[in-house]
Amino acid sequence: MDDRTRNRILSLLFIGVLMGALDIAIVGPALPAIQQAFGVNERSLAWIFTTYVLLNLVGTPLMAKLSDLFGRRLVYVLDLGLFALGSLVVAIAPWFALVILGRGIQGLGAGGIFPVASAVIGDTFPPERRGSALGLIGAVFGIAFLIGPILGGILLLFGWRWLFLINLPIALGLILSSLRNLPAGRPRRTSSFDLLGIIVLGTLLASLAYGLNQLDTTRLGTSLRSWESWPFLVLALGLVPLFLLWERRPSDPVVRSSLFRSRQIILASVLSMGAGLNEAALVFIPALIVAAFGVSASTASFMLVPAVLAMAVGAPVAGRMLDRRGSREVVILATALLAIGMLVLSLLAKGLILFYTAGILIGLGLSMLLGAPLRYIMLTEAPLSDRAAAQGLLSLFTSVGQLMGGALVGAVIASQGGGVPGYRAAYLIVGVIAALLSVMALRLKSRTEELAMVREHERITLAAQES
Asked: Which residues have CB under 8 Å from 316's CB, separation 6+?
């Protein structure tokens, strides 16, 4: 395969992953318009985000395994087709239930686009070019968060349904190009697939999300005892030990339990879950802007630009700090900025200065936390043979945090009767959680301890090469 063919494949994969990533980033600006169109409350509105994340989480390992069995091209086309079908269902939905159904179909398709794209790169690119190709694909998620609010604001000028209709011609072009350019071969792999683990995890997370979403924070004790909450929360808790017990058996489990012998990995996993929760809270900010400032949904999207620019600054700053100061100081600073930003947002009383200040702090903190430091911890702490599993674990916990965050924020806002008071209460709770993450980060290893661990890994690697 020549370089020109590989570059066409890389462009095709890049656009596909960008399309899937954008539907997380631009759904926030659409929420106020969708809420107005269907007359639903914030508790129901949260499922537009939560359903997508849940099916995305389930779809990732499922589609990756199907691509091993039936070939990359077939499954990549299937994922694009599912994503387009879900987009169409959302765009033409006359009822809110169909919007949720469409988002689920979208999430299932998008869940397979990224891992299949990564597998195609592994199959078609030589080892010396795989790193740069995977880095380009991985950077798509950051790009999506940068251009998502701006693109969302432009499309909202024509109506919220265009945020989903625009996916149809793009997906069609990608499907036709995939059929022409992607290799049709099927890798010869016999690794087992942890189907039961995926089913148990999906049921656990769906029950947890629904139980959290039905809570009434103004009468927490009563709602915990209600039939809308407690059966689902009990089911989720009961499935946790079953899931952990089962995950010791498969050769390729969803979660490699041996990784949790490291305190650093446990801390990094919890921190990534907290980061995902804060990321989910970010999705609801456009609806807060509409309620607080009385602007259109399109204008609310453009008002996120300062926060987006701060995110563009935060990630490279965190990378430079990481080399000089170590992951602990970066994570402490990131979570502190995030906590202060969320708490300032909770004080919002139609003050633009407060809002933009909060947005910049949140953008800086979230980009610094979601960027390099947590992945660096995983690379440092995980055994060489489990580094890929450790990175997957980080992504899993981030998705779990997004799922819980979407359900929780929607529940808090609805419990307070919606409007500005509901959003202020929700961001107060999220700010407190971020502050707790900052305290937790104090338990991370110092730079000296990290460097000692890196040198130990290098010694082990060198000894293995010599033997």
From this structure: none
pLDDT in tens, 138-182: 667 777 777 887 888 889 899 999 999 999 999 999 999 999 888
d(CA 123, CA 183): 9
Q: What's the whole-model pTM score?
A: 0.84
Count of CB atoms situated within 10 Å of the CB of 240: 13
Output the CA torsion 267→272→278→282 (10° steps): 170
Structure tokens at 104: 């689920």
Give the CA distances from residue 79 to residues 10, 24, 101, 402, in Å, rounded to whole numbers and listed in that order: 17, 16, 16, 22
Looking at the predicted structure, is the pLDDT value of residue 246 above 80?
yes
Query: Are 178 and 170 spatial neighbours (Cβ–Cβ below 8 Å)?
Result: no
Predicted pLDDT of residue 37: 92
Name which of 132, 117, 99, 92 is nearest 18 in CA terms. 117
Q: What is the mean pLDDT of the chain?
A: 85
Name the packing angle between helices 263-283 and 372-381 (round to 10°): 160
Asked whether the beta carbons of 53 and 154 are under 8 A apart, the reply is no
Please state, in angstroms and rounded to a whole number, the distance separating the CA atoms of residues 428 and 458.
44
| Angle at 205 (CA atoms; ends 202, 210), nearest 5 degrees | 120
Q: Is 397's pLDDT higher than 60?
A: yes
